[in-house]
Request: fold
Amino acid sequence: MNCEQYREAFASEPGKSSAEAAAHVAQCTECATFRSDILALDKLIGRALEIEVPELRMPELAPLGEDDKVTTLPYRRISTPVWLGLAASVAIAAVLGIRLLTSDTGYPTLEAEILAHLDHEPQALLVTNTPVPAERLQKVVSANADMDTSPGLVTYATNCVINGHLVPHLVIQGERGPVTILLLAEEMIEAPLPIEGEGVRGVILPVGSGSIAVIGEREESLEKIEQQVASAVHWKT
Amino acid sequence: MRFDRLVAGMHKDMYRYAAWLSRDPAIAEDVVQEAMLRAWKSLDALRDDAAAKHWLLTIVRRENARHFERRRLETVDIDELTASQSAMLAATDDSDLDEVRTAIFRLDDEYREPLVLQVLLGHSTGEIAELMNLRQGAVLTRLHRARIRLKQIFDGDEKGSAQIHGSTT
Reply:
């Protein structure tokens, strides 16, 4: 490690040190001075940033009606009995298994199939700040695409079958709740297709020779996410 | 009440983050109020209280962006500060501290925000990258440049000072 490397590393993360950095600074007086200066500066920065905070003023929080709430599982029909949901899951799994072989979806439209798919994968829609490991994300996405940049905090990634094709199914944390992203390499469409579900909305957007689906809460700002995913994704086929 | 507990514990961080993002305590108060309302409506979606800090700061960040989109605020002119901005910068008896505060205030947004997140809010560079939707390498570069610019100012380096006085929005 040379002086430039040391200083760059230290000035970006003063709280982090490595054996290599410690060895360098132990024998370089100039870098030791730089280190002291940055530590002193950081103390000042920390104090300077602690501006006075006014007393907490809670807004008026009216009791929420069901329509106001943003729930974790927006696609689930709450009145559906558990046994019916389980039975439906089994049925869907069987249908999807058959569909993978036959490519006959049984759904009237791609939008309907996507909504049905989300309805039966509620475990994807947890609010969490635990990211999917980078290796897993890479593995899932690589089923049909590459992505230059992550569209956000990806908290769920798996491959699913949509319209008979294996599709990366990702969830990122949006402002109003989880946002679902499907990378549909095989679904070439000419124009955006809106998706309207129970409490959710989204769109299927044409991207090159394929398309992407982005679905979130009704009040979620999806446009930026759509743009980020559309510009980051590259199909493999 | 769960919401009160979460917000009370995070209120200072939310406010300070909003204030350094917007560079205006008055705007920060509005942003935090709006963020709390949005958080209240979305509370059922927060399954893991350990994720509350990241969640609330994300809401604050987006509310701040919305505020500026709505208001279409122009460049902040350091020589024409509002009363609340002036109060934010000169609220101590320590002139060194006020100078640092002013220097941070003048940093470009792209450098000021990661510095606030790291030094004030204790975020790791990985967490900052997630929040700001950047690569971790970009965060490291910005943090390095932010500190070097501040150091140049206090070392009396005119070049650094000139860089930091660049346009800010």
Chain A is about 40% helix and 20% strand. The two ends of chain A are 43 Å apart (CA to CA).
